[in-house]
Structure formats: structure tokens, C-alpha cells
Design brief:
Number of domains: 2
Structural class: alpha/beta
CATH architecture of the largest domain: 3-Layer(aba) Sandwich
Order of helices and strands: EEEHEEEHHHEHEHEEHEEEEH
Number of strands: 14
Shape: elongated
Distance between the termini: 26 Å
CATH superfamily of the largest domain: P-loop containing nucleotide triphosphate hydrolases
Strand content: 25-35%
Helix content: 25-40%
Radius of gyration: 21 Å
CATH class of the largest domain: Alpha Beta
Length: 282
Amino acid sequence: MTALSMRGVHKSFRGRSALHDCTFEVGRGSVTALVGANGAGKSTLMSIAVGMLAADSGEVAVLGHARSRAGISPGLAYVAQHKPLYRSFTVADMLRFGEHANSHWDHDYARGLVADADVPEEARVKTLSPGQRTRVALALALGRRPEVLLLDEPLADLDPLARKAVARTLMADVAERGTAVLLSSHVLAEVDEMADRLLVLGHGRIRLSGALDDLLAEHYLLIGSGDPATVIGAGEVVETRPGGRTHLVRGPRAAAGGDWLTEAASLDDIVLAHLAAPEEVA
């Protein structure tokens, strides 16, 4: 079942397009990574999905209903990139605030997430490290027991061990409750560790979408001299690298032979090629 969807969403700022005809779905029980360079439109897309920003046109639905115009839609939680928390509050104050501000709240679960992160409840937010603030913000979001969770660059402030701990927390929530997660990132290593689906956003457009395993299976590197069109059959060349010998191809893998070799494509190969490719290819 679809947990979050956009259909034909457009958004411009002062006549400059930020999102153009964005269409995608996020299913229940999946972790979908929204990947793109800085300035690609990821935060704008997140803000529209949450309801903090209105689209110029198009449709946004959360759990099968048109997105709420009166605050965050029921069943949805959001952690913004800058992790907004009250600096003068203690962590315990923030947890009590979460309890009073939300009609659906699991206080024991939220406290447990804070304890698992070794963040003292008596500590004031302004004294916390960026990574600790991230863990508190995530506890506040998950304490709502959301069905849809949106995370804008959630792991940027975390060291490798903390990233793994947060990933375990998210994956457990997805496995146990079927939570739908949409997380934005420009770090592909994070995507490979956590996501099962991928959305590539470039210059305000969805350039590529699909299950991660399917996308990896659909692409390969073709290496050799000559015209790749003579060997790729129904496939299409997404990118030809400088020097003209290495091509990223999408489609059934060509039979290697003669002057041609094939290799598996990495996630980096695929994402970077589609971001650089002409729009009609992606």
C-alpha cells in the first residue's frame, strides 16, 4: 500500500523552478532514499510532503488522503535537516513537550531511544553535540509512532558508530511496524546501507526511481572500443565517460566478446550517470 505519493508536483521561487513534474510513491514498510546534489530540491520536496510549503500545482497524498493543510498530516513525522529543538530545554523537557504536543505518543519508547543513545535526560539541548541532537530529534519523531517518517539528511552529523545505531533503530521500526521512511541524503554510502528503494532528484526533476536491487541489476558497464549500439541490443547508453571506452548501459546485459568487456555497475556509477544524463534518458 502506498504511504506517501506525489503526482505532477511543481514549485517555483521568484520564477525559478525548484521542482518540476515530480511524481513518485513511497510504499509501507520500505526505506526510500532521496538522493541528489546540494541544491537539487530535496529539502523543498520534503517541505511540500510534510505540509510546511505549498506546491504551485500537483497532488500530495499521505496514507491515501490529501495532505493536511492544517499542520503535519496525522500519521506522519518529520525530522528537519537543522534538527529544531528548544536550546534552553533539557532532554527530559523535550520528551515532556513531545508527550503534550502529540495525541499519539509512546513516552517509554522515546525515552528508551534517548537512553540507548547515552544522552542524559538532565542535559540541556544547547550543551549537546550535533550527533546527540540528532538522536533526540529522532526519538521525538519516532515517539509519535508514525506510519510515515520523513528525514532530511538525518545522518549528516553522526560518526560511523552512531550512523549504524540510527540505521538499526530505523530498520527495527520498519520491520516491526511497517513504517514508510523517506530519507534524503547526498552520501551514497548511507543509501547503500539503509535503503531498499531509490529516488534520484536532479535540477528539480525525478531522474530515476525504483527498487535498489532492480536498478543495480538493470545497469552495467560496457568497456571497449567502437560503437556500443552494435552490441547493447534493446539497451540504452546512459553515459559515455571521457575517453569514449567506458559506457554505463541500462538494459539486458550485452554478451561480452571481441573487443568488449562488461562489469557490474556500482550505485555511484548509476546515480552520477543519471544526474549528468540528458533528461530524456533518465
